[in-house]
Design a protein that fits this description.
Glutaredoxin, binds S-Hydroxy-Glutathione
Length: 222
Amino acid sequence: MANEVILLDFPVSMFAARIRIGLAEKGTDYERIEEHPWNKGPLLLHMNPIHKKIPVFIHNGKPIPESLIILEYIDEVWNDDKAPLLLPSDPYQKAQARFWADFIDKKVNSFWTKVIWKVKGEEHGAGKKELLDSLKLLEAELGNKPYFGGDSFGFLDIALVGFYPWFRVLETCAGFSIGAECPKLIAWAKTCLQKESVSKSLADEKEIDEYVAEMRKKIGIE
Ligand code: GS8
């Protein structure tokens, strides 16, 4: 059976990084097609007509949007002795991993957006506090484990680690040091970075800086 795997990708995206890491963990080859969130090509609009967002995973012509859903799909489809499971097999642990991944998208991501792109005013101040509280909750969930799921790298690590190269920008915008506030989270990110699947998949900091500069210009907060 043909096994055509395509990722509609955007290099600085923490969501697309999840898919790059997941596929690297599974040892799956794929074709990357770059899309840009402000200049959406016809393929992206056709493959993700509802949200029109990157990433989109296209498996044998069939599109799947939304990074966490894609990651679960990859985990189910590439599931043999050679491909480590990303989600725990225990139902309760699996539910926990999904809960915290959803927390990252609902809380960390929304406050993040407020802090990075809304640089002034009440919303910015509230966003900063909420973001820090969310990161601290994640740090408490991590505890003293090397990875969120215990001794092995998995779904929740992948869901969060894509944000790591953005920490520097965030610290500049928020005026706090994540390393000082959440030292265990930084140590965890560094452990994740020792894996080639992560180090080769994360966004490049210089590209992030360029994107942030373009984005600020675009929304008028230079
Ligand atoms: C978020 C994807 C997203 O925001 C997921 O896949 O998990 N919940 C989705 N993608 C951005 C690029 S990365 O910042 C995007 O495509 N934005 C375009 C838009 O908002 O129109």
